[in-house]
Amino acid sequence: MNVENAFPIGIPGQKWGATEKRQWLEQTTVKRSYFEEVVPKIEALKANFDVFQYGQLHYDNNPVGEDRYPLFALKTRSWSADKPTVLVTGGVHGYETSGVHGALLFAQSEAAHYQDAFNIVIAPCVSPWGYETINRWNPEALDPNRNFIANSPAQESAAVMQMVADLGMSILAHIDLHETTDTDELEFRPALAARDGIEYVKGSIPDGFYTVGDTEKEDDELQKAIIDSVRQVTHIAPADENNQIIGSDVTQEGVINYPLVQLGLCAGFTDCTYCTTTEVYPDSPKVTDDECNRAQVAAITGALDFIQRL
């Protein structure tokens, strides 16, 4: 099914300008609170982690949400140059709830088991405005997860990249926590097509967990270890009739690959040896919110257990 313009803002075939972007921003609303639901959980982890503010988002004249959002990260104690460093990011797309709360649950429940082997740094909510408005973009109609590039125009992406650079450590592994939701197809992909003045081509949403690896890395075994770990918590997304998931060829059960650096994706910016983007499906009738969070934790522990076995 092809639809020229399935979004009520803009003119079909024409890219949005400032007027359309403002119209889009003004029709968004705040639906939950970063300061009430996320920040207190981060503060509660100060007893076991070094919690630090790595930046602040500035949205001048923002009619929806706050003008300022502080950004926080957590570091394991006993940080050492002799240990490899692992980066966990969540909430790059703020609406993907288990990315945020799965990262925090890992910090609460499992990170201590790995801190002797790894330095671990966790940025649990990269896009707090997106978290509050349940949105894929930031207020400037930019997708942070397509802007992990030099001189990034997305504040959220630039802040994380600078934070990692300031650590002064090479990153061995990066686990970026995401979800694929029904609203991807109902709202966000139509909005993307409208914003960019292109034809919207309807797709499908897979029912289950999958990962996105890097086409430039030899990491099939890592992805398999993650899938095997997560299947203990939730079901794995099946391939469609074309042996694909969201339009990409399945390389093994529950795994597709993207050129991460070329696409400006978060999991590609560190030049790490091991990386993955997790994709939980929270709209499935087969899962609960808690299971989605635990699936994210299982993905992280599956990756770390695999690396430790090498």
Automatic annotation (TrEMBL):
GO MF, any single term: metallocarboxypeptidase activity
Pfam families tied to this protein: DUF2817
A Gene Ontology biological process term: proteolysis
InterPro entries: DUF2817, Peptidase_M14
Domain Peptidase M14: 30-304
Superkingdom, taxonomy of origin: Bacteria
Family (UniProt): Belongs to the peptidase M14 family.
Protein name (Swiss-Prot/TrEMBL): Peptidase
